[in-house]
Amino acid sequence: MKEFRGTSLTDLALSGGGVLVTSWAVKADYHWDAGAAMSRYLDGFRDGKIWGVRCPECRRTMVPPRGFCELCFRPIDQWVELQDTGRINTFSISYVNWDASRRRTPEIPAVIEIDGASPGMSILHKMGEAGDTLEEIQARLRLGTPVQAVWKPRESREGSITDIEYFRPIG
Amino acid sequence: MPYKNRVAVVGAGLTKFMRRALETSKELAFEGASAALEDAGLTIDDIDCVVSVTAPEAFDGVHMNGEYLADGAGAWGKPYMRTYVGGGSGVFGLVTGWYHIASGHFDTCLVVAEEKMSPALPHPQGCFNAIYDQFTERPLGVNLLWIFSLEMNRYMQTYGVPMETFARVAQKNKRNGLDHPSAQSGVAADLDIEDIMASEIMAWPVQRLMVSPVSDGGGAMVLVSERFARRLSKPPVWIEGVGWNLDTSYWTNRDLYYPRYVEKAARMAYEMAGISDPRRDIHIAEPYDPFAYKELHHLEGLMLADKGQAPKLLEQGFWDRDTETGIPASPSGGLLGVGNPIAAAGMMKCAEIYWQLQGEAGPRQVKREVRRGLAQAWGDLMQVGTVVVMGK
Ligand SMILES: [Zn+2]
């Protein structure tokens, strides 16, 4: 095979000033209107409730809620109050931050199947009260472990997914 | 055949894959495109239209990056389009090029892939935070690795796959990559399973040596109609099947243990290629392997293994480059062994199938006879499958 082209740089070459670089920083601020379905979902968090929607055609009870069923492609307006309990569908024990820096104590993102919704209907959240080390967490959590939401005090809720501080293992 | 033109591949080229390239993204596109034209024995004057692929614009920090790249891709004064399906873009570029020619509208198409990930600070991973839902997910303080580690754990625990198996995928691909001229420095390596198992945990169960690196690189392929191919001296490789499919963006409502969108994309491509038994009719595969578990996950989605069986076949050497009875998987070295400049990495997988079918893969040439192979990529919010089947 022939040699391919390309000039690989080392960090040393860059820091030594041998390579010219130009920089630019982006400042990008956005706000998003939450829409009809998502507004009601987020508002429910203020009352310590998790709302789902039910499609009358495929009969799925879905969470997060949506204003239309993506399978049947029809509008949905039937709301169902779900429980704030569920089971771990899958979880991770993360030692990295978004900027690739390391964490001393891991975060535990988890996909949680919410009780009252159809099987497999899950949301992304984080686990807490599950240990601080890899070994402790692995010993405490399994796929299928029952969990419950830990809510912020009512006065500090703001209609956000973070009104649930985390889910904790129960039983 | 309901298409106007049968479509042939007549050339492929790549750049080196690099942690950080001196070349700009436009120059990487130019180097990849030129290498493919040289391989095909053609010049830019022979090219009727151009397709480019590059993944999130946030890496480059250039809005409408397709237009920025156009000159480097050889698109000046020609019909041109950029197509984008996240990590699936490299293979989808070939699909897009295929329908430009299959339509009968063009005889030749240059498909150019480029990725320059290194400009984004502090780390390109940050660009991916914006793929998460802004209402229900981003406020949790997400990072990209979460979705992979969550999916890997679901797959691993559904079938009880030991960590050693995933380390073995990384070992295989990193060894294969030692023979690839594009391989990024330090990425291709001959490692012991113990070394891979001992690499630091990033987001359990994902460990550092089971993840493909951040890379800069480019690549391209030349597609032509049958009548054009007949004028060239070298026998072509044919695009026999193309498939693509997208799953719901409500990713927490899917079961992550199985990529059903890859299966749907594969079925589409197999049907077009007249393949009823992919394990018999596909002789070599380049499944998308940004993480070690993804290779196994995708081989199952491609129906080259039963659900949950890809790990067992790995242990038997079924996916090894020198297998005589199995299906070599990622003989190029893959993303784990060559590098992962996203769209260019998918192009590298397509190029590998082309070179293997031409018998031009040099030290990477597989032992078994190959008449048909496939390349597959995956991306968006881990929901798109793109598949190309090539044969000779
Ligand atoms: Zn429905």
List its salient traits.
heterodimer; A: 171 residues; alpha+beta; 3-stranded antiparallel beta sheet; 3 helices; 33% strand; extended; B: 392 residues; alpha/beta; Peroxisomal Thiolase, Chain A, domain 1; 9-stranded mixed beta sheet; 18% strand; globular; binds zinc ion
Give the termini distance of chain A in whole angstroms. 61 Å
What is the helix fraction of residues of chain A, given as a range? 10-25%
Distinct small molecules: zinc ion
Query: How many independent structural domains of chain A?
Result: 1
Oligomer: heterodimer
- Total E-strand runs of chain A: 12
Helix and strand string of chain A, N-terminal first? HHEEEEEEEEEEHEE
Secondary-structure content class of chain A = alpha+beta
| Fraction in helix of chain B | 25-40%
Strand residues, percent of chain B = 15-25%
What does this structure look like?
- Chain A is α+β, with helices and mostly antiparallel strands and 171 residues long.
- Chain A has one domain (35-169).
- Helices cover 14% and strands 33% of the residues of chain A.
- Chain A contains 3 helices and 12 strands; from the N terminus they run H-H-E-E-E-E-E-E-E-E-E-E-H-E-E.
- Chain A has helices at 11-15, 35-46, 134-140; strands at residues 50-54, 61-62, 68-69, 74-75, 78-82, 85-91, 93-96, 102-107, 109-114, 122-126, 146-151, 164-169.
- In chain A, strand 3 (68-69) and strand 4 form a beta hairpin.
- Chain A starts with 10 loop residues before the first helix and ends with a strand.
- In chain A, 29% of the residues are buried.
- By secondary structure, chain B is an alpha/beta fold.
- Chain B has a single domain, classed as Thiolase/Chalcone synthase (Peroxisomal Thiolase, Chain A, domain 1).
- Helices cover 34% and strands 18% of the residues of chain B.
- Chain B has 14 helices and 11 strands.
- Chain B has a 9-stranded mixed β-sheet with strand order 3-2-4-7-1-8-11-10-9, with helices on both faces. Chain B has a two-stranded antiparallel ribbon with strand order 5-6.
- In chain B, strand 10 (372-379) and strand 11 form a beta hairpin.
- In chain B, helix 4 (89-102) packs across helix 14.
- The radius of gyration of chain B is 19 Å and the shape is globular.
- The mean pLDDT of chain B is 96.
- The structure holds zinc ion (ZN).
- Zinc ion binds next to loops of chain A.
